[in-house]
Specification:
about 240 residues, mainly alpha, three-stranded parallel β-sheet
Length: about 240
């Protein structure tokens, strides 16, 4: 009951967000705005955010206050957001391909060939890409190989607070009833005029222990009789 419905994200379908006119966020200055408009989002439902702190703040707001229910961004920026707020968000849905980035140089410039070779060597070099990734995302917890939803909704003592209150109340009721009954039966000790409070407490504790011992003997006696009767029953 605590976790089953929370392991799945609330919204994973873009068409559902568009149909219900939910607010979605995107990073300020990003080409994502044009892409969202082409997908069918109304401009009034697009909220500009300064990632990643701005996105976290927008997620925390109510819908009527301009809060968002989903955010779209480029994968590197999403990784940065998840590295900073690993326990709160996760990646869902499809990845939408775009034209990517382009570098423009004058015709015949040697920089074009040199930069193309450098980009190719970086993309093909797994160790170099790993070092770059660790440099940017390794300082904080990375969610790439981490179940953010599981950690976000992990069970703690606070998760069972209502259960503790319920069990505590149910346990206290018979305990209080028994104590009141015990004090009523021994009210002569409580009302004795020439006895100090300490002596009264000692007598009540002795009485309580005596009743405990009597109950124990009663249970042992009847348990012994039951065992004896079972031993003396003839076989069928």
């Amino acid at each position: 009951m605590l976790l089953a419905n929370r392991f799945q994200p609330t919204f994973t379908d873009v068409s559902h967000l568009i149909k219900n006119r939910y607010n979605v966020g995107y990073k300020n200055g990003s080409f994502i705005e044009g892409m969202l408009k082409q997908m069918g989002f109304d401009e009034s439902n697009l909220k500009v955010c300064h990632a990643p702190e701005g996105l976290d703040e927008a997620f925390s707001k109510q819908r009527q206050d301009g809060g968002i229910l989903a955010a779209f961004d480029e994968l590197p920026y999403i990784e940065l957001l998840l590295a900073q707020y690993c326990d709160k968000y996760t990646k869902v849905g499809d990845i939408y391909p775009t034209g990517g980035f382009g570098f423009v140089f004058p015709k015949g410039s040697p920089l074009g060939l040199e930069i193309s070779r450098t980009i190719l060597s970086v993309r093909e070099g797994k160790e170099k890409m790993k070092r770059i990734r660790n440099a940017w995302f390794g300082i904080k917890r990375s969610c790439s190989d981490h179940n953010s939803l599981g950690s976000s909704y992990g069970l703690t003592l606070y998760s069972f607070r209502y259960l503790f209150v319920f069990v505590g109340v149910i346990s206290l009721i018979p305990l209080l009833a028994y104590l009141l009954s015990f004090l009523h039966k021994n009210k002569t000790i409580l009302t004795s005029p020439n006895t100090s409070i300490i002596r009264k407490v000692i007598k009540l504790v002795g009485k309580f222990n005596g009743e405990d011992e009597n109950r124990l003997r009663y249970y042992e006696y009847h348990a012994g009789i039951g065992n004896k009767e079972r031993r003396e029953v003839p076989p069928p």
